[in-house]
Amino acid sequence: MSVSLIRGTILAVVVASAAAVAAYFAYGDISANEQAPANDPVVATIDGEKIHRSDLESLKEQITKQVPQLASVDLDAVYKGLLDRAIDQKLVAREAGKTGLADSADIKTRLKEVEGELVRHAWIAEAIEKKLTDERIKARYEELVRDIPNEEEVHARHILVDDEGKAKQLIAKLRKGAKFEDLAKAESQNPGPSEDGDLGYFTRANVVPEFADAAFAMEKGDISKAPVKTQFGWHIIQVSDKRPVQPPKFEDVANQIREELTAKVAAEILSDLRKEAAIEVFNADGSKPTD
Length: 291
Hints:
single chain, alpha+beta, 4-stranded antiparallel beta sheet, 48% helix, disordered N terminus
């Protein structure tokens, strides 16, 4: 049974300006790779200028900032699209380089803005890392464990059929010695995550009321004496174990806790900065507030 944790806002949301940096670089030029290792093959050339596989990997990372789902996609699955984009970027960068735009005031201003964004992002990320210690994460875990409700959970299997008569026939087979797991595999319309009807541990809140009432009234080792009707059909239940709700292992929820605390720590850092500064705010027209 896992503890319900509040998934905190990650750093990119806390520092909203970082999203703008991600958007800018997601479509930026790929960097030249002049000293590529032997396992980094050339995947294209443009008038002799090489594009390496590592360039595509870097480009994929940049785009992933805008499309997080891409992180789980293998590079080979999007290879053609990435290669086309890399070629286009090289061609555009080459032409842009001929115009002298890099020396324009507008470009220099924008680069300065991006530089500022990167520095701010890097600073607050480092500040958060210093404050978000392992001890603080462990303390939050222990706090969550203390708040776990003092309730019972049941480990059960079930067989689900759409006919009461069929369910009664299966109960009769179980009484004659048939294995619950075998009947679940052969007869159940929805055996559960595993094909032998095993639902794992659950609390009352995790299942529909009719199923909960029946399962929690049974003792360890019991099998339903009569079918249990729910909105899904007719169930036969076997209770394997009953116990107090168990806390999740620390290693299983540490990352969730880190995400939760990241937003909190970032807010603390920003609050401290505000306290240390003499800040005066005005109305949108520049006038002083009257109250």
